[in-house]
Design a protein that fits this description.
It is built from three helices and six strands, in the order H-E-E-H-E-E-E-H-E. The N and C termini lie far apart (about 60 Å). The strands form two sheets. A three-stranded antiparallel β-sheet has the order 2-1-3. The longest helix has 21 residues. It is an alpha+beta fold. It has a domain of about 90 residues. A hairpin with a 5-residue loop joins strand 1 and strand 2.
């Protein structure tokens, strides 16, 4: 009787193995966990590279609205959006020669990453954080 059960299970095991080999990417199709950057309010930071004027916006429904507000707040013709984010925070660091921006889960993380990217003698020019939800 035991041999008969094993004999009956062999075709089922073979089918399962064939299905697994035919579709090796199946587990990768599972939904990935959502991060704070995939939901939440939008924000942006705009800077005039020459005058270092800044404008920022946070807690907007769309990225486009946040960018427009950051540019409006910056208030100069040569302002440009240098950071756009969703949830979390962003920061811009700079010196007389360069600018660098970065995002992070917290203000401290964004500022640290931006100043490291920028290099020596850089200081934080602006930061903004948006709600996660």
């Amino acid at each position: 009787m035991e041999m008969r059960v094993i004999a009956m299970l062999r075709p089922i095991a073979a089918l399962l193995l064939a299905a697994a080999l035919a579709n090796p990417g199946a587990p990768a199709q599972a939904k990935e966990p959502k991060t704070s950057h995939s939901k939440g309010a939008h924000g942006a930071i705009a800077v005039n590279r020459e005058s270092k004027a800044v404008g920022y916006a946070y807690d907007f429904k769309t990225a486009q609205d946040a960018k427009r507000e950051a540019l409006r707040e910056c208030g100069e013709k040569k302002c440009e959006v240098v950071a756009s984010f969703r949830g979390g925070c962003a920061a811009v660091a700079g010196n007389a020669r360069q600018l660098a921006s970065s995002t992070g889960v917290t203000r401290d993380e964004a500022e640290t990453k931006a100043t490291r990217k920028c290099g020596r003698d850089c200081a934080v020019l602006a930061w903004a954080c948006a709600k996660d939800k």
